[in-house]
Amino acid sequence: MSKLQVLIVDDEWNMRNLLRIYLSKEGFGTKEATTGHEALAMWREHQFDLILLDVMMPDMDGWQVCKLIRETDSTIPVLMLTARSETKDKVQGLGMGADDYLTKPFEPEELLARIYSLLRRSTGGLQAKQPERVVIEFPGLKIYPESREVHIQDTNVEFTLKEFDLLSTLAQSRQRAFNREELVDRLWGNDYGGETRVIDSHIKNIREKLHNAGLPYNPIQTVWGLGYKFQIPGDV
After folding, report:
1. What is the DSSP code (8-state) at residue 104?
2. Per the omega criterion (within 30 degrees of 0), is the bond before 131 cis?
3. Is the separation of the CB atoms in 178 and 227 below 8 Å?
4. Which of 65, 149, 199, 200 supports an S-S bond with 36, CB 3.0-4.6 Å?
5. For the whole model, what pTM was predicted?
């Protein structure tokens, strides 16, 4: 079996070297980019299974790189590495389409846990046989869990890994109210050490995509003081 390939993007040699050592010990193949422009060129030229993307770089920051990647690829997992711990910075990264973030400095175990969580989501549905066409269907909206597709008015709409997982989780438990902690556990596992408000950023992105694609209602309702639930017009 070929190695899973990770693109490491960071302008600091020490950090790139550290990440390469961590990943090599786990059996990953790696390539490294020192600038945003170099990262985009390598991403276009090679096939990667995951991108580790630093935020603060001199020529083009990680937010811009992530945004450009997401314009054509909504499926590759992107884990952003940031020296900033402010919530607004994390929200900005998630708004650009990142799947997760990790604040420097971090422990190797935490980094690897986040990576494996993302890879389970991105590769777990790949099977030797063609997946069954199971569909979760609502007016104007179809969700295909096995093929990880979302169709709105019969048009395919791209969602990131975490966005899809969150939408699918809510839709499969229609009208059940989830708190943020439950959703974080389902999407990242109970070893996740980040903030539960990460859910709010993904919900915002999902709602915008559903609206922009022409869905005439908002199926993800806020349950004040708790979290979110999936509800369509007519539900009581």
Report:
1. S
2. no
3. yes
4. 65
5. 0.61
Cα 215 from Cα 157, distance rounded (Å)? 11
**Which has the minimum average pLDDT: 87-91, 98-102, 145-149?**
87-91
DSSP code at position 132? P
Look at 111 and 84; give whichever has higher pLDDT.
Answer: 111
Report pLDDT digits (tens) over 38-51.
999 999 999 999 99
Residue with tokens 């422990």: 107
CB atoms within 10 A of CB 173: 13
Residue with token string 């929200």: 91
DSSP category for residue 235: -
Cα–Cα dist 235/129, whole Å: 37
How many other C-beta atoms are found inside a 10 Å radius of the C-beta of residue 109? 10
Among the listed residues 44, 122, 120, 61, the one whose alpha carbon sits nearest the alpha carbon of residue 96: 61
Q: Which secondary-structure segment (H or E) carries 5? A: strand 5-9
pLDDT 10s digits, 135-186:
889 999 999 887 788 999 889 999 988 899 999 999 998 899 999 989 988 8
Element (H, E) at 212: helix 198-212
The gap from C-alpha 157 to its chain's centroid, in whole angstroms, comes to: 15
CA distance 134 to 89: 37
**Average pLDDT across the chain, whole number:** 85
* SS3 of 66-80: HHHHHCCCCCCCEEE
* CB neighbours of residue 193 within 10 Å: 12
Phi and psi of 234, rounded to 5°? Answer: 105, -20
